[in-house]
Specification:
Radius of gyration: 22 Å
CATH topology of the largest domain: Beta-Lactamase
Strand order of the largest sheet: 5-4-3-8-7-6
Number of strands: 8
Length: 252
């Protein structure tokens, strides 16, 4: 899509956002100085994507509630990032390992915040970076706490290719591990996404009791020893519990 097309689509979106009533095609085209055929093409695309509704009786248009859903997701990410920041810094200070905050987006996770420890070599991840769901601790958490039907659908769509020799590449094995994540309250990535890196992930819930994000502790195997991997899940979950509580989560 060209920048001109993007501009036209957002012109229409912003125009519709100013109206409480439905708007006819010709009125919209005239106000935006567009050819009716051009306006109709963009409106049809926005309608097919679910961002615009068309009244079946009058054929007029309005924005759909999908924008409210999208806005709520953005605000949720901003809110959880702001609340999590101080807790992430404290967790990193106490463990000297890297903390990541991530959210689900389609078939991947997206890092929305990161705090590095004082290791000689820091993690290569960065805010905005995308990573697989199936081979990361934080991704497994995001998968584990979704509705079963949605989880099964996503697992079927994932390309479970091996990132390392330890990567789970079987949908059945992954499903069994996700059940353990729900049971234990945390997930483990033992060099499954990158050789030499171990991670622990735990969920963050909002005031509705719904998973909104996940937090992880990541570090090199030389510091994330077997002994620490047995202790750190409790430390991580204490942090995610605090963040969830500040988001209004009241527990089970």
């Amino acid at each position: 899509m060209t920048s001109l097309s993007v501009n036209k689509a957002f012109e229409i979106i912003e125009f519709l956002s100013d109206y409480h009533d439905n708007v006819g095609l010709r009125d919209l085209a005239r106000e935006l100085d567009m050819a009716p055929s051009t306006a109709h093409r963009f409106l049809s695309s926005l309608r097919d994507l679910g961002y615009v509704k068309q009244d079946p009786k009058t054929s007029k248009y309005r924005l759909s509630l999908k924008f409210a859903w999208l806005g709520a997701r953005v605000l949720g990410c901003v809110q959880v990032s702001e609340i999590a920041k101080i807790h992430m810094e404290e967790l990193t200070a106490n463990t000297n390992e890297t903390t990541h905050l991530a959210v689900l987006e389609n078939l991947e996770l997206v890092y929305v915040a990161k705090t590095d420890g004082n290791q000689a070599i820091n993690m290569s991840s960065r805010v905005g970076h995308r990573a697989p769901l199936y081979s990361t601790a934080i991704g497994k958490v995001l998968l584990a706490y979704m509705a079963e039907e949605a989880q099964i659908k996503i697992i079927q769509e994932l390309d479970l290719h091996p990132k390392t020799r330890n990567t789970i590449t079987s949908g059945d094995r992954l499903k069994n591990q996700l059940n353990d994540v729900r049971k234990n309250g945390y997930a483990i990535d033992d060099e499954e996404n990158e050789i030499g890196i171990r991670c622990i992930g735990a969920p963050i819930f909002d005031h509705r009791g719904e998973l909104i994000a996940a937090l992880s502790l990541s570090g090199w195997k030389i510091t994330m020893t077997n002994e620490r991997m047995a202790i750190l899940p409790k430390t991580l979950m204490a942090t995610t519990d605090k963040i969830s509580e500040e988001l209004g989560y009241a527990g089970d």
